[in-house]
User: What shape does this take?
Amino acid sequence: MAKLKIEDLKKIKDRVQMEDLFRSGAKRVRVTVHMGTCGIASGAKEILDTIMDEIDENKVNDVVVATSGCIGICSREPLATVEVQDEDPIVYEYLTANKTRQIFRRHIMNKEVQTEFVMAKGKEQDDRG
Amino acid sequence: MKVYRSHILVCGGTACRASGSEDIQKALVQEIARRQLEDEVMVVETGCNGFCAAGPILVIYPDGTFYQKVTKADITEIVEEHIVKGRPVERLMYVEPSTEEPIPHMNDIPFFGKQMPIVLKNRGLIDAEKIDEYIARDGYMGVAKALTEMTRDDIIEEMKKSGLRGRGGGGFPAGLKWSFAKAAKGDQKYILCNADEGDPGAFMDRSVLEGDPHSVLEGMIIAGYAIGADHGVIYCRAEYPLAIRRLGIAIDQAKEYGLLGEDILGSGYSLDIEVYQGAGAFVCGEETALMNSIEGNRGMPRPRPPFPANKGLWGKPSVLNNVETYANVAQIIMKGGDWYASIGTERSKGTKVFALTGTVNNVGLIEVPMGTSIGDIIFDIGGGIPDGKKFKAAQLGGPSGGCIPVEGLNTLTDYEEITKMGAIMGSGGLIVMDEDTCMVDTARFFMEFCQDESCGKCTPGREGTKRMLEILQRICWGKGRDGDIELLEEMAGIIKDSALCGLGQTAPNPVLSTIRYFRDEYEAHIYEKRCPAKGLSKLSKAKHKKIHAKKQADV
Assistant: This one.
């Protein structure tokens, strides 16, 4: 690809931020599995695989799966963040494959937050910038 | 159609099957047959009903009783009580978790609420392998500003104003270091990044490289431009494969976008960055040893001066900063040195990342404004000590550092304040120790580490650490002698004065610091042959090995 100019940086920024709002409306849910070394060591790969299997099994096409790094609280890994469009992001902690399937069926597909597995809602920097 | 008085639904979804629903179904069918209830009760396998974590699940109709985490052993009871006698088995019933319970916001949790993420601002939010996501959160805007709107002197001035000090441990002002390298004469200069994080219990740099590698590249580009370097090297330990992989991806993507390579953003400035893998020697985190290692020589320090700003890598002027230092740079350029200097204490500006570990509830990576007390970090952010144990000490600065006891909990995270307590800020490893920790053994552990990692070049580093370790070992093994404490103190002073590099000079610190605060424990070991923390009497080598075997395995 061609080399960027400064204006291009701004264009990328605008484009990605729009996409971030559930990839321009095409997606309803974004699931982020936190995959730093801490997450991977405590089983994040299995969580990611479980989500992919569920997407496959339930023939869902409005869920986007992303990976990201450590959010800092390594002792509660594996962690994943579920963002349903127009709702607060929900961070789930101490995940297992079974908890992940339950979250998929009830939260991602039915919008029922699985309070018992939740660590917190929102984003760390909502009110800090 | 046949009418049954009861239906038992067995969940046959993937999750329930994985947790044994097939066996349960078989056992259920057998038990019903044994009681000749086949004509009254029908067993049905259903698809996943969604409560996977509670599986295997049974639902009994007509009443719709929901049983969770059922095992084969429960089947007889369920059939006997529920089907035959009509009494639900309460201990297995699923209780709907109260949905009224409010979910806290991330920032209502003290772990997150008391932090101030600058270096970690993108943590958990972006995909480290997608440069666009970094750009979407203002990534490379610092480079854009620096390369097009600022002169090299402007950048250094801004860095000096920010008060940012090297985060690798030394705490040398970054702006000043850059100004020396800029002033140095030479047709070739290098910009280097130290990612050879080696302190036991420290994982700040790894996490930054894994989660946000572009922030480090961006800092290096700005620094490289400021000093006039056209080549950069990130020295990363090979034990960080994920960090190395993500750095490689980040460098490739930045090159593709023209953010690295020739004529960056059309500014005329060119810089290449490569990753050099360290083979695992702790001493290679020392700047001159690191440069020797990149040159293909044995990783051993060389005397300073000349300092790297004048004669660094390949004898050329070089700047070496740590991962966390670089990760601050772009934001200082974007928001200004004054903004950064407004955070923190008088002499320690900005934030510091700590790897919080040991016997503390919330093990993890935190970033706090300078001036946050050690007590706030351990008890508010860290959530205190597990199992109701008492706090004993916090070890800061790894093998070059020292410990801070209960009476030092009000110490602020400030380079000078921590040094006053006999520890050092170091790179940010913060190991919390509870009342069961033996401080003599802690000193022995760190001395063993230093002795093991000594490169062997200078006598104090090679022999001094060896002899100190021998004394500490015999104290731990119940063979301590009168005068050992004084001998340790004397040797510590000599090593501090005479070792060639920073690692040797600081190696006695953990010993001095534990003697300073826990001399009574040393005395108990030497004169009474007992270990108060572990509750051991009649110490011996075998006893010591046995009691510490688990801890060693953990480290």
Remarks:
- Chain A touches chain B through 61 residues (CB under 8 Å).
- Helices of chain A lie at 6-20, 37-41, 44-57, 97-108.
